[in-house]
């Protein structure tokens, strides 16, 4: 990761902590895709408040979306608040079910993708 990526990581890490210290009950934050699982975990460990990931810009594929959610949850995230990457899909309900599998049941990306494709 280049210096601007490290600066962005440090800003996020300190930002979620500061919001918790200021009394936030929950923090919703953009989580850049260039940040690794290890760095996401560091953000979660430093936060004193549950952190949910915003969906961010439109993702290239459903698989990328589900991989993002899985990485975020495995890093200690508390959930997601995803808009366009759900509502702009052909079948938003199946995307919601797939994300639920990852968030609430710790399912795999492949199992979640099968839900979207109707093979589960």
Q: How would you describe this structure in keywords?
A:
mainly alpha; 57% helix; 120 residues; single chain; three-stranded parallel sheet; 3 strands; TIM Barrel
- Give the fraction of residues assigned to helices: 55-70%
User: Based on DSSP secondary structure assignment, what is the total number of beta strands?
Assistant: 3
Q: Terminal Cα separation, in Å?
A: 37 Å
Q: What is the string of helix and strand elements?
A: HEHEHEHHH
Largest sheet: 3 strands, parallel
Trace the largest sheet across and list its strands. Answer: 1-2-3
Low-confidence stretches: none
Write a brief structural summary.
With 120 residues, the protein is mainly alpha-helical. It is 57% helix and 8% strand.
Question: How would you describe this structure to a colleague?
Answer:
It is a single chain. The chain has 120 residues and is mainly alpha-helical. The protein has a single domain, classed as Aldolase class I (TIM Barrel), CATH 3.20.20. It is built from 6 helices and 3 strands, in the order αβαβαβααα. A 3-stranded parallel sheet has the order 1-2-3, with helices on one face. Helix 3 links the parallel strand 2 and strand 3. It is globular and about 45 Å long. The protein starts with a helix and ends with a helix. The mean pLDDT is 91.
């Amino acid at each position: 990761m280049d210096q601007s990526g490290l600066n962005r990581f440090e800003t996020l890490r300190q930002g979620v902590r500061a919001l918790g210290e200021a009394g936030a009950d929950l923090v919703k934050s953009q989580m850049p895709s260039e940040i690794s699982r290890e760095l996401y975990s560091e953000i979660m460990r430093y936060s004193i408040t549950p952190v949910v990931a915003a969906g961010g810009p439109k993702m290239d594929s459903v698989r990328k979306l589900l991989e993002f959610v899985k990485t975020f949850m495995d890093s200690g995230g508390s959930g997601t608040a995803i808009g366009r990457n759900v509502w702009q899909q052909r079948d938003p309900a199946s995307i919601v079910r797939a994300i639920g599998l990852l968030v609430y049941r710790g399912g795999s990306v492949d199992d979640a993708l099968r839900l979207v494709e109707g093979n589960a």
